[in-house]
Amino acid sequence: MSAETIRPADAASARPDATARRVPLAVLDLVPIAEGSTAGESLHRSIDLARRAESFGYARYWLAEHHLNPGVAGAAPHTFLGIVAASTERIRVGTAATILGNYEPLQVAEALGTVAALWPGRVDLGLGRSGLPPAKAGGPDAAAPTAAVPAAPPLPAVPDAPEAVADPAPLAPNAVVDGLVVPPQRPFRFDSARFALQARLLGRTAGDAARFADDVDALRDFFAGPVRYADDTRPDGVTVQAQPATGTPVELWVHGSSAGESARLAGSQGLRFGANYHVAPSGVLDAVAEYRAHFVPSAELERPHTIVSVDVVVAPTDAEARRLAAGYAEWVLSIREGQGAVPYPSPEQATPDAELSRIELDAVQDRLDTRFVGSPASVVAQLETLQRATGADELLVTTITHDHEARVASYRLLAEAWGAGSSAAESPVAAASVDSAAHSVAGSVERDGRADAAGEPSELAVAAVGA
Fold it and tell me: Could you give the CA distance from residue 373 to residue 377 in angstroms, rounded to a whole number?
């Protein structure tokens, strides 16, 4: 892929000075289902991976949230989170990200509060913004129904999918910013009927993405609690406690894919921010710059703190890593074409990239160009570039291979190579050990460097509204 090398002055000045220091590594798990396997087997493998990631020295283990995907079992992170916490001893566990519009804030507070009450000081709550755009004027959702909601409500309004182009223009070249590949943004197709059905099944409503800031405020109130609500019938209102969330330490994150509302909200509220390089690489530098530009110190955080996500496959040699990475293009294509992630194919059954059409390959080229695949030394060099270019305080690694042991080995090889270049104080293992103190949504001060990210819009969730 051709590339244009640039180093914009605003990109260089928007991030703090970044050295070659080793920042902590964390794990993002989508709970992928391998071709020929089952969801139950995949969940058991994720428990095994969490235990082994802890032994390798990873600082955090986060679960993504994705619905109605044939090849992904990570649909209920709040349920699975407690199982992962119970199966490990020290590693922080969390979500990256809880798609807040899929729940009421009280439900999220109670679910995460339960886990945090049992394993205090180990729980992170990452929040992602996605949802439906406002209803079109005169559309089916323009006015709220006054009668009872029917058993099968009409599908909510959804954005129009881009029309297919028979012979699209060649892709613009990638930019290279301070050594980091930053591809141009590529719109991907999605099945609007499928998107609408998913929205209906999850109880989404038109314009619900606009509630994100209010929902974040409500969550913080529940964890700080008690919360008093105004009520016309009581002069003092109604006071509630969201047990077991009230007073329970949970570390709060906001994730984003662009220089939009999520980045600004995380900055203005003094929260930690997760930037998404592994799904939306075109927007990562703008997202972290926007977050830092709006950052205001808070009781929870004295200075900006970011984690950046990245797709990685590591093997003893570059050639073996490339073999294990086969199938990625068709897997991403299944997401971007709207059918939902397919079970991840084996290297032997994977469709070679060369057999994809130009249109299909163009649709996933940005993901191929920004996936770090190779030997430990090769991938470490690329991670160093990502950390330097973004100024990330932590890196969030997601690895998908057909074979579970190959996936485990990838994380092990990376941890060994990354830790080999660290001082004891900067290594992921050391970072994990210093995080014994509880971090709460209201009142804790940043002590170490570790985090979470996933961001919006999620391709797997086919979320049409991103920030």
Answer: 11
Mind listing the pLDDT tens digit for each residue in 184-230? 987 666 677 888 888 899 998 888 888 999 999 999 999 998 999 99
Q: What is the pLDDT of residue 458?
A: 43
pTM, two decimal places: 0.84
